[in-house]
Design goal:
This protein is of the alpha/beta class. It has a domain at 39-91 and 103-113: Response regulator (Rossmann fold), CATH 3.40.50.2300. 44% of the residues lie in helices and 21% in strands. It is built from five helices and five strands, in the order βαβαβαβαβα. Strands 2-1-3-4-5 form a five-stranded parallel sheet, with helices on both faces. The radius of gyration is 13 Å and the shape is globular. The N and C termini lie close together (7 Å).
Amino acid sequence: MDYWVMIVDDGAVVRMAAVYAISRLYSAGQHSTWRLVEARGADTAMSLALDGRVDITLIDHNTPGRDGLSLAANLRHLYPAMPIALMTANSHPETIAGAKELDLTFIPKPRWKDGLAAFLSAAMRRLGG
């Protein structure tokens, strides 16, 4: 099964690190294919999502155009079953509460690799893979 994973972060280094981590996590022994797309900001992310090429989304809270919770709310409205994670260093109580309200997985930066692996594993199960 192919999974399209969108990584939304204004930091190129973070996007590259996430791509690398996903590739390393699922390179050996998996029957699934991970197709990774990157978006620097919310507008690009919405365009990619509306093209129907996104199954799973990782969003930073601080994205150009609108914040990650606003972007996640739009995605959740369009695709209620899409696994979405808020991967951010912004661990303010209202950010965490907003993530819970939208049924997002909260993955704190900078220690995000373990959380990423758990999120992707749960996302595959949720999508039937």
